[in-house]
Each structure stands twice: as C-alpha cells, then as structure tokens.
C-alpha cells in the first residue's frame, strides 16, 4: 500500500500499457495497481530449514514481493464472418502458437497469472479455446491469456512491474527504492559525456532536462569515431567545422596594418608564397607575413573587388556554419524518442519517428545463442533501461545518421550504384524497394562489381535477360539484417529461401558468400543496405545452357547446339527441362543427329511449361511442351512399405535426379530420351510387326473404339505373335474363330490405368500389387529376383512403348488360363488383394 500510495500515476501512464479496458471492474487504479508483501515461514519452520542448511525463508519471485504494481489490459478483436465457412471461431495465428510453445515450456504453471484473472470469465463455455503463457522481460514480467470464441479473439495482458520510485535490482530478486535524476544527469552518470557536450553546445540541454523523452546515447568512443570520420557519402551528415587555418582565404591577407583608405596596400604575393613568406602571430591567428607593394589610384578597383570577395566568403562561411549546426542538431534529435521507452517495449522491425521528424528509428531484436540482442538503426544497445525523472536512457555502440530515405532512394542517389539502380528499374523490382511497409536488406554490388561479370553478361542483363530478376532477388533478404549481430559465422535466407553464408574474419572484415561487405549498415526507412564488392551468384543464377554445362550433360548440350537452340533455351522463362543422361543420349541414332529438323523436334519435346518442382507434380498430370500439340504425361508411384520415396516418371522415363535450378527454369534428369507420341494405342499396335495377332483379336472383339479414347489412360500388356504361336494348335484355332473367347483373352491384357515399368515394385512376400483388368480379373504385377517385370505368369520383355493415350508393354506369354493370371512361380491361385494381405499379416503378428 505504501508503494502504491507513493507511486506517481502520471509517470506510470508513460509505460507501454495504456488505459485499462475491463469488463470486470478492474479499471479502477486502486485495483489494478497492487503491491505484494514478502512471504516468510513461521519461526519453528525457519529453525528446521536452518538445521537442514536450507534458506530460512522460501525463495519468493520478485513479482510476488513488495513494491510490485500490477497492470492489466484487455483487447477484443472482432473477426468478420466468412459466408463460405460454417466455422466462425478465429484460429490462433502462427505468432500466437509460437509464443505459446516457447513460453509455455518455460512456465508450464504460472500461479500469479491465474490469480490475476476472473476465473468465472475464463471458464465461460463461450470460449472454445484458450492459450496462456508468461515471459520474463528486462524490467517486467508479462502474462497473456488469449481466448477464442464465436467471431471474437480476446487478449488479456497482465504486467508485473516495480512501482514508481522502485527499480528491479541487478539480481532480479526484489524491487529496491531508487532516486531518479533528469536525463542530462543520467547521461553524465553512465559516461555519455561527449554526447552530452554536443547536446549542450547545440542548445538542446533544456529539452533533455524537461521533456518526457527516451535517448539513445553513443559512447564517447563512438562519438569521437563519428566526428573524426572523413567518409562522406550521399547519406552522411557533414557537420564538422574545419579548423581556422583550413578556412583561410588564399587571395587576400588581412592584417592589422592594412589601411583601406591609403595607398600603401599590403597584398599577399602568391607567386613567391612558399619561398618568401614567413608566419607571424596576430592574436589567435597565424598569417603569412604580408609584403608591401605600391599601387597607383587605378589599383583601388582591385582593392575594392578584393574586399567584396572577402565579404562574400564571410557570408558563405556563415551560411555553411549555420547549415552544419542545423545538421548536427538533426543528428542529435535523431537519437531521441518522445515518451519513455524501455527495451521491453521493443518490437522487432518497429519503426517510429524520432524527435527529428524527418528521421526514423528502427528497432530490432535478435536471439543469438542465449543472448538477446537489441539494436536501434543497427547500433547495438550496450547498457539499457537507465530510468530518469523525465524518461529513459540507453547506451549504444555507435552514433548513427538520420534515416529519411528508402532503399530505392539510396541506390538511386549514389553514382557508384547507378548500374544496380538501372537493373532494378528494368527488372520491375523497384516498387518493392520503395515500399514503406517493407522490412528488407539489400546487398548492393557497386558498378565495379557488376562490370566484373563481363560485357556479354552485362549486355544481356540490361536487355531483358530472364535471369536478371532471380540474380537481383538473391541479394535481398526479407528482414532487416545488421552487421553488428555477426560474431563469427552465420546464415541468412534471401526472399527466395536460398541460404547464404555470412563470415566475419580475423581483421573484422565481413563476407557474404565470398563477397566482401565494404560499406555496412546504411539504414533506411524500409530496411538496410550493405555495399558489396562482387555480385553474389550461384549455379541457380545461370541460364539453362550454363546449368547443363555445369551439370555435365555434355551430349544433350551438344545436341542443343547442333539444333541451334542454345540461345532459344536461354531466352525462355518459367520452363521445366527434362534432360536425358549421357548414357541415354548415346542411344540417339546418327540419322537423327544428322537431321537438324528431327533433332529439333525431339529436343523441343523435352521442354515443358510451367517451371515445376517434383513436389508440384501429380499422378496423371499432363504438361504441355514446346513441340506443338505434344504433351508429357507425369505419373507417380509409391513403393511403400518397401521404399518410402515416390517414383516419378515422365513419359515412363524415371526421374533419376530432380530439381536442378537454373535462373530461367528447372531441370529434371531422366533415364531415357523422351519421344513424342504421335499415335493412339490402336494405331501404335497396328504399326508394330510383332502385334499383328493381338491387333486382329482386338478388332475382332470390338475394342477398337476403346483404344482410341483420348481422356482415359490405358495400359496394354500385349503378347507377341510368337507367344500366340506357342499356344496349343487347338487353343490357337479356337481363339481365332471364337469371338467370345477372344474377347475374354484380350480383356486379360488390358488395365485402365497408366502403369510404367518404373512403377512396378520389387518382389515381396508381404505385399504384391494387383491390378484390375477391364473384365474384373486381378493380376499381380511385380519384379522378380532378377529384376524382370512379371505380369501374372508372363514376363515383360519390352517396356514402355508410349502412345498418346496409354502405354504398351510386350510380354512373352498369352494369359489364357486362370492360373496364368496368378503368380505361377509361387502359387496356383490368384494372389489376394494387397489390403487383405496386410490385414492377415497384421493379425499374424498380433498372435
């Protein structure tokens, strides 16, 4: 009660917790500011603890002790109902769940938090879900309860903080009484004397003594380093006044013996100045000894012009001095914020206007190991939360410049970044760099760095190269990244999710993927810029032709060059390139290689749209290609539980290496050359000399139209003519003359699903895949111990003859009898359904 009575309500209102909004009558100040008394054991218990060598009193957290004020606030967020959804309860955001998961692990049971709320309200059945957690901060302990109900999300916050006039001790054990000085005295006490001197000289002392203010004070070393720096760029503040000797005007010497009205005019002899003139003292100035020369009356015009020039120099100096003083004042005001801001009020990427209304302060927080690092305009806070009677003071490790320009303004205003500015403008990315709502980091290569790429690459980039946007995006991070947070090594992700390495070497140089950061931490209104000495590139930033070369696909690249398609594929964008292996390319016939037109058709068939990673492919997906009216059919096959990886095929070619990125597309390695399918299944069977009997039976049985359908993928296991001739003569004669029997035999060889040989799993006693023929019969398909594909009792001799609407496999046996439809090498009956197998095996294991 004493602490509450002594607290300054006006000062407490300066805390980040605003006016309390409550539905339980807790908005009364006497109820929301409560002080806790220290808990002590009874005397007899203290004796017991002493005998056991334990503390006399239990350890009481500081927020349960005395001189602690509790503040509560409540916020309701109304969620608009979605007409398309019947669920009207808002879901926890990703940030809500992250905070809950992190802090609930640290504080699974929080007694003071549950004591602070009306339990009747919290157990109200209208709340469908609630999350609660607490976290310790630099000067307070904050607890949160998030309640989710119909069309409403309520956040209740409770903060435990030392009352006014008290401060948490260094060990965070209790709130101790303290006496606050004004901001000027506090700055002096913590060692910010150089900054205080600048404030005094510029006339801001009364401001920091009397106004409610937060000041970020650079150390003395930081101020000295800033003032003595000779680096002047378009974002700098040149308020350093030159010494008097450097401001002397070389044309006229001002001397006490000069007499404007006489003829004896003393003038500096410039021609012999270095040899003849000596320096003499004149009060506080030192001037070269003037030489005496006689002038006639005509020289008086020269004297008058000289004096007018002197007055002009004086006015220029006065203006420059006034301008320098104004810049210095703006720089100092750029370190100040209105109100009392503690580090507990820092929100990552929060941007607020400073007392220099043209400049902002950007706050960032970082978790580096077990350390919590906070920065303002990329200056690290080294000493925090020094309370004063009229605000708060924090010490920082550098003096920063006013921040008033966006990233686009920085690169547009620096002549050394003119090439980069031109590239961003042509790429269409400039609006992102100008967006005031963004929080970005740009690693900006200089003109010299970009010129290192060579004239050819630079010319392509300046004239619509599709790789340009990807290269530029590699240099952009979706966060504000300050160099001061890197101790030795680190990694960052750019806006495309690519990982890049940051290294700090022994001589304090910083490198990004091998490019040195030569100018660090140019803070802007929407992020930060670092200047680097080389363009950051990877294999993913190369065009497709270069990616083929780097990947070792020399035969395919040679074919591309022979067909005159190298420039064509480099100018493409958003494509998927299926690249046959070198072994597969060796099987390409010389007749095709010598025919550029035919070769061009085959190569264009390997280029599909759009750019698609394997995670974006689906079963029976159709990708259009650059060959007119020709598509690539994608299939996915799972071999679980034998293999967890899904087999992906393109035109039945197995993808052996996936997702090799280029700047204008993506590459997938395939184990064969993909040939465009020009005919449907019926025409393909007719064109093959080994399928004359099966084709005749297909026509005879009335399945011709079914084999011409375009929207259904069908697989045929077609017996060769030799397989039919191997049948008994009576059976063969009956087959040719009996339409019903012929139809039954034909249906045993057709399934209505796309099945490539790559989709057939190895032999397994636990489970074998059965496929459904169009007549309902189930036929097992598997690979035997030799790796051959088996279809029932037949062996597939040739795989994957693709047609426009299906696949044909050649088999060496006609499935005529029922035992031919089973795994003849293991059992005579048809293999049971795989799910039945799994259930049976599971039951056996349970027994």
From TrEMBL:
One of its GO terms (cellular component) is extracellular matrix. It holds the Pfam family Fasciclin. GO terms for molecular function: cell adhesion molecule binding. One of its GO terms (biological process) is cell adhesion. Residues 1-33 are annotated as: Disordered. Gene3D superfamilies: FAS1 domain (2.30.180.10). Residues 1-11 have a biased composition (Acidic residues). SMART domains: FAS1. It comes from the Eukaryota. Residues 179-400, 404-536, 540-674, 678-815 form the FAS1 domain. PANTHER family: FI19380P1 (PTHR10900:SF77), PERIOSTIN-RELATED (PTHR10900). This is Transforming growth factor-beta-induced protein ig-h3. It comes from Orchesella cincta (Springtail). The lineage of its organism: Eukaryota, Metazoa, Ecdysozoa, Arthropoda, Hexapoda.
């Amino acid at each position: 009660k004493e602490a509450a009575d002594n607290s300054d309500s006006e000062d407490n209102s300066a805390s980040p917790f605003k006016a309390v909004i409550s539905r339980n009558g807790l908005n009364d100040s006497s109820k929301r500011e409560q002080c806790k008394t220290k808990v002590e054991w009874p005397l007899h218990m203290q004796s017991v603890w002493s005998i056991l060598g334990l503390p006399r009193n239990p350890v009481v957290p500081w927020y349960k002790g005395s001189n602690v004020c509790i503040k509560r606030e409540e916020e309701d967020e109304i969620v608009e109902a979605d007409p398309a959804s019947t669920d009207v309860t808002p879901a926890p955001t990703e940030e809500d769940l992250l905070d809950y998961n992190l802090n609930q692990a640290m504080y699974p049971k929080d007694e003071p938090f549950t004591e602070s709320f009306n339990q009747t309200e919290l157990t109200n059945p209208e709340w469908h879900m609630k999350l609660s957690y607490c976290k310790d901060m630099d000067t307070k302990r904050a607890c949160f309860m998030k309640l989710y109900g119909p069309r409403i999300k309520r956040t209740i916050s409770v903060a435990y903080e030392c009352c006014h006039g008290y401060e948490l001790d260094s060990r965070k054990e209790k709130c101790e009484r303290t006496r606050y000085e004004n901001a000027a005295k506090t700055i002096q006490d913590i060692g910010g004397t150089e900054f205080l001197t600048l404030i005094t000289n510029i006339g801001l002392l009364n401001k920091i003594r009397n106004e409610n203010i937060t000041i970020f004070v650079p150390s003395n070393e930081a101020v000295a380093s800033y003032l003595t720096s000779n680096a002047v760029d378009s974002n700098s503040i040149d308020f350093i006044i030159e010494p008097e000797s450097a401001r002397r005007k070389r044309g006229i010497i001002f001397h006490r013996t000069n007499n404007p009205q006489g003829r004896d005019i003393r003038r500096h002899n410039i021609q012999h100045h270095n040899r003849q003139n000596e320096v003499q003292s004149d009060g506080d100035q030192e001037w070269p000894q003037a030489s005496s020369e006689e002038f006639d009356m005509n020289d008086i015009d020269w004297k008058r012009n000289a004096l007018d020039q002197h007055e002009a120099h004086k006015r220029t100096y006065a203006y420059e001095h006034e301008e320098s003083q104004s810049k210095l004042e703006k720089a100092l005001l750029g370190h100040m914020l209105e109100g009392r801001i503690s580090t507990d009020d820092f929100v990552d990427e929060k941007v607020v206007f400073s007392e220099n209304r043209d400049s902002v302060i950007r706050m960032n927080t970082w978790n580096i190991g077990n350390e919590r690092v906070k920065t303002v305009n990329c200056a690290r806070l080294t000493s925090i939360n020094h309370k004063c009677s009229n605000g708060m003071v924090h010490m920082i490790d550098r003096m920063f410049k006013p921040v008033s320009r966006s990233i686009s303004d920085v690169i547009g205003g620096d002549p050394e970044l003119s090439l980069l500015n031109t590239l961003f403008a042509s790429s269409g990315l400039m609006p992102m760099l100008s967006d005031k709502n963004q929080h970005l980091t740009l690693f900006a290569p200089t003109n010299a760095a970009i010129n290192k790429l060579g004239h050819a690459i630079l010319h392509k980039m300046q004239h619509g190269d599709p790789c340009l946007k990807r290269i530029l995006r590699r240099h952009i991070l979706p966060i504000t990244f300050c160099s001061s947070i890197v101790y030795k090594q680190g990694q960052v992700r750019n806006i495309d999710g690519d990982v890049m390495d940051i290294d700090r070497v022994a001589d304090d140089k910083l490198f990004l993927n091998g490019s040195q950061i030569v100018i660090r931490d140019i803070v802007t209104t929407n992020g930060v810029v670092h200047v680097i000495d080389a363009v950051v590139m990877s294999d993913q930033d190369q065009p497709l032709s270069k990616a083929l070369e780097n990947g070792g696909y020399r035969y395919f690249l040679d074919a591309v060059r022979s067909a005159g398609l190298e420039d064509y594929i480099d100018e493409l964008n958003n494509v998927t390139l299926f690249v046959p292996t070198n072994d597969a390319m060796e099987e390409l016939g010389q007749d095709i290689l010598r025919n550029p037109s035919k070769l061009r058709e085959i190569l264009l068939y390997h280029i599909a749209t759009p750019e698609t990673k394997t995670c974006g492919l689906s079963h029976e997906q159709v990708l259009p290609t650059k060959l007119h009216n020709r598509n690539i059919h994608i299939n996915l096959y799972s071999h679980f539980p034998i293999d967890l990886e899904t087999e992906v095929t393109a035109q039945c070619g197995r993808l052996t290496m996936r997702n090799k990125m280029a700047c204008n597309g993506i590459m997938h390695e395939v184990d064969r050359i993909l040939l465009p399918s020009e005919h449907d299944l019926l025409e393909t069977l007719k064109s093959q000399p080994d399928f004359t009997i099966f084709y005749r039976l297909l026509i005879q049985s009335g399945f011709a139209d079914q084999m011409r359908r375009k929207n259904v993928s069908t697989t045929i296991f077609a017996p060769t003519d030799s397989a039919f001739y191997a049948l008994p003569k009576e059976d063969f004669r009956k087959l040719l003359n009996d339409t019903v029997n012929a139809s039954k035999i034909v249906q045993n060889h057709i399934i209505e699903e796309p099945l490539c040989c790559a989709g057939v799993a190895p032999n397994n006693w636990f489970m074998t895949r059965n496929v459904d023929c169009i007549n309902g019969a189930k036929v097992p398909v598997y690979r035997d111990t030799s790796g051959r594909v088996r279809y029932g009792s037949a062996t597939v001799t040739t795989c994957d003859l693709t047609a426009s609407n299906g696949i044909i496999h050649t088999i060496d046996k006609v499935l005529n009898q029922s035992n031919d439809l089973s795994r003849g090498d293991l059992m005579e009956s048809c293999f049971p359904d795989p799910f039945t197998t799994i259930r049976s095996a599971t039951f056996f294991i349970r027994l």
